[in-house]
Specification:
By secondary structure, the chain is of the alpha+beta class. It is built from one helix and two strands, in the order E-H-E.
């Protein structure tokens, strides 16, 4: 699997916005990347 196909989109929710304060980010990833 190509690295550029693993990350699908950022997840923007209230909970994920709280993670930004600690410089952590949430992304939707391809299930086959696991």
């Amino acid at each position: 699997m190509n690295a550029d196909k693993i990350i699908i989109a950022p997840v923007v929710t209230e909970k994920s916005n709280r993670f930004k304060e600690s410089k952590k980010y949430v992304f939707r990833v391809d299930a086959r990347a696991n």
